[in-house]
Amino acid sequence: MTKEELWQAVLAQVQFNMSPANFATWFKNTKILDKTGEKVIVSVPNNFSKEWLENKYNKSILKILRDLDQEIKEIKYDIAKTVLETKKEIPQQNVFNENQLDFQEFKINKETNLNPRYIFENFVVGSFNELPHAAAQAICKKPGLVYNPLFVYGGVGLGKTHLIQAIGNEVNKKFPKKRIKYISSEKFISGVVNSIREHNIENFKNDFKKTDVLIIDDIQFLAGKEKTQEEFFHIFNTLYQNNKQMIISSDRLPKAIPSMEERLRSRFEGGMIVDVGIPDIETRIAILKVKTKERKIDLSDEVLEYVAENIQKNIRELEGAINKIAIHKKISNQDIDLNVIKKILKNIILAPQKPINPKKIITIVANFYDLKEKDLFLSTRKKEIVKPRQIAMYLLRDLLKCSFPFIGRKFQGKDHTTTIYACSKISKEIQENETLNEEINIIKQRLYYQS
Ligand code: ADP
Ligand code: MG
Fold first, then answer.
1. Is residue 162 within 6 Å of ligand 1 at its C-beta?
2. CA of 152 to the centre of ligand 1 (A)
3. DSSP letter assigned to residue 109
4. In the chain, pLDDT over 90 holds for what percent of residues?
5. Is ligand 1 within 6 A of the CB of residue 93?
6. pLDDT of 450
7. Which of 160, 217, 157, 159 is nearest to 353 (CA)?
8. Nearest-ligand number for the alpha carbon of 286
9. Number of domains into which the chain is organized
10. Which of 330, 349, 368 is the last residue of a domain?
């Protein structure tokens, strides 16, 4: 077995015992770096993954590895170097992309930050995304001159990132001289924070002001980030005045983004706003066909229909299903009939995305910090509890816009000044503390994806 196959086998097994969200969180961007006799070195993307794999999953990973290769006695987890250099960090979207399991190597372009796999050629168009697609195509013909900015909004996993990056890749191909930059809002925020700290905010901004096409993903994360909004506003104006193209994505309309400065909001509304809807069943089958072809697997129409009927709201999940099937096929050599598929997809299909509510926030935060839900309500100053509690309060406020008194009542009638303090403390800390920021992002991912 090669290193890749060995790790693939581990991933295939662990994912059966874990929710997709957990799997995504801890096993994203991991691989076996090296294997020397008894020792296996696993590369992980950050310290955070490292700690969790070491402390929580090491035993089960080791067991799986040993079942496959009895020689193995020890695993060492190493943080991959590239991720430590924040500047060069790959601004991939938040959410785990199960394609990585396929070990298809897509190198992110260092200049543009674009992922070459997001192109128009593999983007399926249906009535749900016809308009955004048409606008995107028009922009590729005349960047900066038609719809500016283009504001694409829609739910999670419906192709916003794919589409806006496809514009970047296409413009790059057609106009190689144009400077294109893709960045997620989270990276943009941390860029602003870091460059302020390092006193080079002007450089940071100038870098953006020099682009011909600026693509900024998930702008809703700028909510409440005043300083970042201000810097972005200046960049926006410079680019706009110079007829440079801006493309923005968001999970909601500009007016629905809370605490977004009015002047920015009206800039967004001044361009073209398009929404991505939910694909109908035929389009879902078409998407599945594209994905199976990419992965060189062949599935019967019956199977494709089953998947398309059962996964309705999210293209990322459709893709995840295909990846699971592909891995299963590779490893088991089993014939894939509908019964096998049903078993493989049990997790995905039985766990549709649910709306977020206070209960879910509390469950997921407690779970994330390995506490019992009731621990969050204890009257204690223990650090291990205070921090998760403050985070839960912050999320109730940030995601659900709960009032401070409401949050106070939820937490055993705490005074609303305590909840105000907690929320502002966390929102300040996020700006300064990369690890906390990362933790909260993962919690948010789980909130959206874990049922
Ligand atoms: P969003 O940014 O809206 O959350 P993404 O762009 O990340 O969604 O899409 C999720 C996954 O689904 C990606 O892997 C993407 O390639 C795939 N996908 C989304 N829309 C399409 C489409 N129209 N055709 C083919 N694949 C798609
Ligand atoms: Mg996205």
1. yes
2. 13
3. P
4. 53
5. yes
6. 63
7. 157
8. 1
9. 4
10. 349
Segment 155-172 shows an average pLDDT of: 96
- Residue 446 has a pLDDT of 76
For residue 82, is pLDDT > 70?
no
Which ligand 1 atom sits closest to the C-alpha of 125?
23
Q: Which two tokens stand for residue 234?
A: 């200046």
Query: CB-based contacts of 188: which residues, under 8 Å, 6+ apart?
Result: 216, 222, 228, 232
Are residue 127 and residue 145 in the same domain, yes or no?
A: yes
Does ligand 1 lie within 6 Å of residue 324's CB atom?
no
In this structure, are 373 and 391 located in the same domain?
yes
The Cα–Cα gap between 333 and 314 comes to: 28
Neighbours of ion ligand 2 (CB under 5 A): 93, 160-161
* CA–centroid distance, residue 315 to ligand 1 (Å): 6
Residues 272 and 125 placed together within one structural domain of the fold: yes
CATH assignment at residue 133: 3.40.50.300
Q: What is the CATH number of the domain that holds 375?
A: 1.10.1750.10
Cis peptide bond upstream of 149, omega within 30: yes
Max alpha carbon distance in the chain (Å)?
65
Q: Are residues 344 and 420 in the same domain?
A: no
Query: Is the domain of 151 the same as that of 208?
Result: yes
284 lines ligand 1 (CB under 6 A): no
Q: Ligand 1 centroid vs 159 CA: distance in angstroms?
A: 3
Q: Does residue 411 fall inside a structural domain?
A: yes
In short, whether 410's Cβ falls inside 6 Å of ligand 1 is: no
pLDDT of residue 49: 79
Domain range for residue 129? Answer: 120-276
Which ligand gives the minimal distance to the CA of 185? 2
Same domain (yes/no): 57, 154: no
257: closest CA among 296, 225, 293, 211?
225
Residue 337: its pLDDT value, please? 85
156 lines ligand 1 (CB under 6 A): yes
Whether 87 shows a pLDDT value over 50: the answer reads no
Q: Does the pLDDT at position 84 exceed 80?
A: no
Contacting residues for 364 by C-beta, under 8 A, at least 6 apart: 443, 446, 447, 450
Which of these three, 276, 298, 323, is where a domain ends?
Answer: 276
Give, for ligand 1, the residue of 158, 282, 290, 353 to mutate: max count of ligand atoms closer than 8 Å to Cβ.
158
- Look at residue 96 and tell me if it is in a domain: no
Residue 113 lies in a domain: no
The residue whose CA is least distant from atom 6 of ligand 1 is 159
Question: Is the same domain home to 226 and 267?
Answer: yes
Q: CA quadruple 115, 119, 123, 127: dihedral positive or negative?
A: positive
Query: Same domain, yes or no, for 305 and 332?
Result: yes
